[in-house]
Design a protein that fits this description.
Largest sheet: 3 strands, mixed
Bound molecules: zinc ion
CATH class of the largest domain: Mainly Alpha
CATH architecture of the largest domain: Orthogonal Bundle
Strand order of the largest sheet: 4-3-5
Number of helices: 4
Oligomer: single chain
CATH topology of the largest domain: Arc Repressor Mutant, subunit A
Number of strands: 5
Helix content: 25-40%
């Protein structure tokens, strides 16, 4: 599965399968097994994105900012989170963070509602 090495962003097992299927007859179950093995040896990292599982070849971070008001999920790119590594009882590999708050759109709406009432 050479296409794995070319993947530089997040990908799903299905995406990897359809790439691999261009050159060989390979089933999705094989792809899952392959990814699981790679994950165990630390060559692939996995993240939960909603109900989907994403994979990456690089140690990356996957961060969601979820609005508690409208439920919208935004992906954040965080770079300076290495300090978290000091808090862990062991060696940290990659990050998956879920941050909850109120998105700018909802904040604006809240502010508008307030000025309307005043
Ligand atoms: Zn990892
Ligand atoms: Zn995600
Ligand atoms: Zn919102």
């Amino acid at each position: 599965m050479d296409s794995l090495n070319a993947a530089d962003a997040f990908f799903t097992a299905e995406e990897l399968a359809s790439k691999a299927q261009k050159t060989s007859r390979i089933g999705i179950a094989t792809v899952y097994r392959f990814l699981k093995r790679r994950e165990r040896s630390g060559k692939v990292h996995s993240y939960l994105c909603g109900r989907r599982r994403l994979y990456s070849v690089k140690e990356d971070s996957h961060c969601h900012f979820t609005c508690s008001k409208c439920g919208r999920v935004e992906h954040l790119k965080l770079s300076k989170i290495d300090f978290i590594k000091d808090a862990a009882n062991g060696k940290v590999c990659h990050f998956q963070l879920d941050i909850v708050g109120i998105c700018n759109r909802c904040l604006k709406q809240l502010n508008n509602d307030r000025s309307y009432k005043l």
